[in-house]
Every structure is written in C-alpha cells, then in structure tokens.
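pasting for the record
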Amino acid sequence: MASVRPSIIIIAQQLLRSSSAVNILSRFKYIYFPVGENMNVKEIEKYLEKNFNKLPEGCKQCVRGEKLVLFITGICNNNCYYCPLSKKRKNKDVIYANERLITTVEEAIEEAKLCSSKGVGITGGNPLLKINRTVKFLKALKKEFGEFHAHLYTTPETVSEENLKLLKEAGLDEIRLHPTKIFNEGYDEEYIKFLCEKLDLCNKYIEDVGVEIPAIPNMEDEILKLAEAIDGISKFMNINELEFSEENYYELEKRGFKPKDDVSNAIAGSEETALKVIKEFKGNLFIHYCPSVLKDAIQMRNRLINRAKNVAKPYEVITEDGLLLRGIMIFDNEDELKEMAEILEENGIDFEIIGKNIYLNPFILEDIIEEMKRQRFPITFSAYISELYPTSDALEVERIPLITKKLRFRRRRNKGRL
C-alpha cells in the first residue's frame, strides 16, 4: 500500500483545512422526517415564532430539544384505544431515559448530560402509579442540575393531595392531565366536573397546570365544551395530532381512521379538528396544537443534534438532521487491516479499530477509495458509509455501499410519546 501514502496525506490535509470533521454538513440529502400535506415545517416555524412565548415552559424546552424524556413506567390503569406505546413499553414496568433502557438515577443523569438537557418530561404509562420512583428520580435530577424544569403527564383519577404534596416537595414545575374518559367513553358532565376539581387541586400545589389531549377526528364539539369548562382553571390545553403506531393501528383502523398521506403516521382529519377548535374557541384559555411534523422535524431533530454534539467521535460527521455519518472498512485479512491502520496513523487521520473493521471519516474513506482506484491499487476490503442515530442504541438508518455487493437498506425510528 506504500504507493497510496502521499495521496492520502493530501486528502487528509485538504479535508482538515476545510472544516472540522465533526461539524461539516452531510453531502447526502435525505428526508428522515416525513412531512404531512397540511402544515409543513415552514408553517410550524412561523407559528412557533409568533406564539413561542405563550407556550408552556415544558413545550418551549421540548421544541428546542432540551427535554429529557423520562418514561418512568409503562403501567397504566387505562386502556386507551389510541395509545401509541410499543410492546416493550406498554403495561411493562420499565424505565427509559429517551431511547435508553435504564434502571438507576445515575443513568438518567448521564443521559441528561449527553443530551445537554435543561429539563425533564416525566411520562408513562402513568407516573403517579409509581409515585415513589417518580419522586426519587425527580429529586435526583433537581439536585444534580439545579434549575431543571420538570413537567409530568398523568390522569385526573390518580391525582390526590398526598401525591401532589410529594411532587411539590420534589420540585415539579408543571403537570398535565389527560382526561381519557372523554375520548374512550364520550363526553360526560359529571366527569368534566370531576376533572375541574382535580385541576383546582393541582393549582394549590403546582405552578403550571394544564390539560393535554389527542385530536380525535370529528370530536370538535366535545373538545370545545372541554375547553370552555376548564377555561380559567387550566393554564393551557395542548392538542396533539393523532397518529398510527404499530400497537394502535388495528384499533384505529377498526374505528375507520385512515392515514392523511402516504409518508406520515398522522391520521386524516385530526389536524382539521384541532385547528377548528382553535378557530372557534372564544375564551381566554391558550390552546396549543402540536402536529406530528413538529415532533419529528423540529423537536426530535433538535434533541438528536444536541446529543450528537456530545457523543460524536472525532471521525464522525454530524448531518443537518442530527444523525451521524461514519466510514467503515471491513477486512478479512488482519495484516492488511494493520497496514491500512499504519497509513492512517502516519497521516494524522482519526480512526478506530473494532474487530476487523476500521471506522473513519466517511469523506476521507471515499477519497481514499477513489485514489486507490485511480492508481489501480488492489482493494482488499469492503467499504460502506454508515448513517446512524446518535442515541444509546445507535440505530443504523442506512448503509451506503462503496465497495460491496450488499443491498442498501433504510429504517425509520418509531416515535415515542413525550
């Protein structure tokens, strides 16, 4: 391989002069986050610019990708037909910090640091069914980070004065109640009265109290009546676009719901319902609509970028969407691997050896291969550019072959509920 060494020096120097390998943008342009036909990213960005200061603090941090999503348990007393939780989470007493399965407070703190989180959203399942665990994690995060905004999702049935006292003592800043009965059984005045009583109780202990609901198509009248009932008691109401997931697909399809387009998980009519409610509501309650595209193209993307900046290795490239690109050389012969490693080391190129693979900057890998082909030097390794999430599971999105006969593949991460 001695004949390619001078060329590799030139390649490396040109790349390192042009910009940092970790921060340059991808040469590849993919759409990772499907966008629906109704509200596109630009429209959402305009909406956020206009209304950002009105948003609950928890939403502001979510939009910026600054919230740690702490899934405290999958246990829940309800059985909502639209619940999007996966099999590995639904009704399972497990804990996740973002996509990372954890068991300890220390792991949650570590994940928060890796994502540069400035707050936590505690979800489930129902966190109040594991109140001691919830309080333990919340106290630890507050102690570790100090100013660390915390909001929590639950149902009115599990709200009690005892639980609220514990949450206040632990430092909870915001609570969001999900009145499940309305969407599972229908609108009921007695239940609305019960909900309002629970909201009043929350207001005695928690600074910001709100309601969060799904935008079930054709339920505009029920949602409007709900908004009127909680106006003056609840600080805000968030309406989330309804989405298909692997777990809720059958139940939603059985009820006649359909996807709104070919590239999104969002359900037809959900967005129209939410926007109609906002347009027709005449009260003072702030109503925020959170579409699927906001979660995907803005919130999730920002969180990925934040984590990628902290976990990217020197040879990895962060794309515009917060994913990581790396080059991979795969060797069958150990001597040839060692020889290539010597060449890279002599030229000051960052790389890593794992097993029979060499990981390096993907653009340097491309140029090395081109130079070896130009000089008709025998190539004795397979080579790919790998594109992966910067999350704990390092889910590979795409493997782009440079020297191989293997097929390309793509995968898309399923979204979890915050």
